[in-house]
Amino acid sequence: xxxxxxxxxxxxxxxxxxxxxxxxxxxxxxxxxxxxxxxxxxxxxxxxxxxxxxxxxxxxxxxxxxxxxxxxxxxxxxxxxxxxxxxxxxxxxxxxxxxxxxxxxxxxxxxxxxxxxxxxxxxxxxxxxxxxxxxxxxxxxxxxxxxxxxxxxxxxxxxxxxxxxxxxxxxxxxxxxxxxxxxxxxxxxxxxxxxxxxxxxxxxxxxxxxxxxxxxxxxxxxxxxxxxxxxxxxxxxxxxxxxxxxxxxxxx
Length: 252
What we know:
By secondary structure, this protein is α/β, with parallel strands linked by helices.
């Protein structure tokens, strides 16, 4: 069975302008290679045999850099979006996906083992499994817990000075079963949260896979700057020493 991955590489990355006026976000350089080059090498190392790149903005550059996958010893094909269809809208017309398949954003840097994620998904019986990461939001304010009662003032029942609020956030990496595509209309713009709600309403199982290791979603200038700073320290964790040494240079 050939493991299949769909990498979303078609967005404009407006928040990373002006860099993304000349390069699509997944081709921005990290160390001596493009973000997308790192992602594809990781998928290869995890046993994926076919990758579909969903492209749109500056797609000719993605095609020119990534090619047909022969330099990675993997099959790469392309799905062109004539207009942006959101994070999962393109999946409806992407063709036969076979069995369980991985979908991920093309600007994610993480040490997550995609093979382990796939195995956990298949064992769970989920229709969709979302890779998640813990995050903490720190507020700069004192937060009051108030019991609204009669009269002009509420009764304060608690007070927290600048509390930290933990959240589980989506990493932009998902495993889907083929039946989830029945919930997406061809040509419809749809984001992942909308698909999750449709699946839940239909009684389908949606799961969360917790990963607490290295993860960066490169959506803002500060994220990209951090990725540049961190790459030399984490490249062994991302690619493995052998995989990195075997890689000659970034694709030209």
